[in-house]
Amino acid sequence: MNFIENNMEVATAVQQSDQGEVLEAQVVANFPPRPDAVVTLLHQDDFLPGVQTMLYSFRKKFSFHQTYPPEVVVLVTPNVDLEKATNILMPALCTRVMTVEEWWPPSQSIDSQLMKGFGKSNKRVLDNHNPGWTKLRIFGLQQYETILYIDSDCLVLKDVSHLLDLNKVYTESEALVAAAPDVLPPSNFNSGVMVIRPSTQVFQTLQKNAEHLTTFDGSDTGYLNAYYPTWFTDFPPDARLSAGYNAQTELYERTKDPKTGESSFWDAQLSHDLHIIHYSEPIKPWQTESSDETNSLHTLWKSWYQKSKNFLLRDKKERAKQEKERLAKKQKLEQEAAAAREAAAKDPKRAHKLVTKRYKELRAQGMSTHDAMQQARHEILPNDSSQPDAGSQVAAMFGMQ
């Protein structure tokens, strides 16, 4: 893609963003990183349905009102089938897929020494349900000013676009801008949903201190709470999101009625402010039998998953239709150009008219005079070396020769 074509697409994309449309991944890939990004992590193939459903729900609920809407980025670890993930997620659901190396918890740490003292092994492990240490790499993505991170096992039910504005009024230098409380203890925050200000300095400090800070649960949530021990007491009020922005299903399970399977606490305390459901229990909705309808939250997730599959199917068909139309248009143009060349070979005056007509079309599309003339002559008279060069032709058209 040349400079003119790139800028034409940029202009079109900016116009689309003003109309609240999601930008195409192929266009965004030619941009420098946007100021804001919404990021999630895909750490194994089994979590692809979770990422797909979360991104679809986000796309349906997010208000793309910004002049430059956020990029939607999926971080992918090396053990994931990158081609499969990219084919499913781009460009329908995200604008970038970025590969990142796994961040393994340190084998030698204060925690491991403490556990040995109790006759237990180090709790810091990276498994299917504890990939969070790799998540901490978002703090090093300093190409973005603000990142809204959402775990892949979440479901977005309300617009969360305003969370990206928190960083605009936040004056502290720390990278963590906002998070919601954990289930236990609520004075800690859960890392499933976070607004951060990426910082290379903070990221390097996180890496450096990994061996020296304890983590109450062995995961990234515990480690981040050790790194930000005063989140609840000293951070500004905007840094403490309400529980509805990271409503963990673990809380639902703890408070539900064993007979009805429903949680009156959840309904009374969270339903009115339910922005994001976090399926934080070990067994994820896509890992249960499809006929299992005993869990209303799992049923809700599965309904969104089906919607996401329907959306991707429609999107695939529409893109195939557009590609077919593009190829047909290209073929038609090639046929017209061939006919024009044949006619031009027989009639030099007609050749001049065809070149002039094509030149004006290209100029109307924003191409420079020099490039437009070169392109027009290449299309109409590709093998004609007897004609003057493009610069002379343009000069002649404007009476400068």
TrEMBL record:
Keywords: Coiled coil. Pfam families: Glyco_transf_8. Signal peptide: none annotated. One of its GO terms (molecular function) is glycosyltransferase activity. It comes from Cylindrotheca closterium. The keyword Ion transport does not apply. PANTHER family: GLYCOGENIN SUBFAMILY MEMBER. This is Hexosyltransferase. Residues 310-343 form a coiled coil.
